[in-house]
Write a structure and sequence with these properties.
The chain has 76 residues and is mainly α. The protein is built from three helices and two strands, in the order αααββ. Strands 1-2 form a two-stranded antiparallel sheet. Helix 1 crosses helix 3 (44-56) and helix 2 crosses helix 3. It is globular, with a radius of gyration of 12 Å. One of its GO terms (molecular function) is DNA binding. Pfam families: GntR (PF00392). One of its GO terms (biological process) is negative regulation of DNA-templated transcription. InterPro entries: Bact_HTH_transcr_reg (IPR050679), Tscrpt_reg_HTH_GntR (IPR000524), WH-like_DNA-bd_sf (IPR036388), WH_DNA-bd_sf (IPR036390).
Length: 76
């Protein structure tokens, strides 16, 4: 019997799909971790883990004091 994916993976995959489809474009600012936690009804830690996964995939980039943004991948 298949198990449901971990909530952080669901969130990361949702944002990744929006980035790949063009719904979220390079340079777009993402909601804060606490806003994402509220949107998905999860803990801030779960939302942070999802954002970390997206950062590891090089889909987003953080700018201290400014927020988290969709990475510009046109250089690849």
């Amino acid at each position: 019997m298949p198990t449901a994916p971990a909530p952080y993976k669901v969130i990361a995959n949702d944002f990744a799909a929006k980035i790949k489809s063009g719904e979220l474009k390079p340079g777009d600012k993402l909601p804060s971790t606490s806003q994402i936690a509220d949107m998905y009804n999860v803990s801030v830690g779960t939302a942070y883990r999802a954002m970390s996964l997206l950062h590891d995939r090089e889909l987003i980039t953080g700018q201290p004091g400014r927020g988290t943004f969709v990475a510009d991948r046109t250089a690849e």
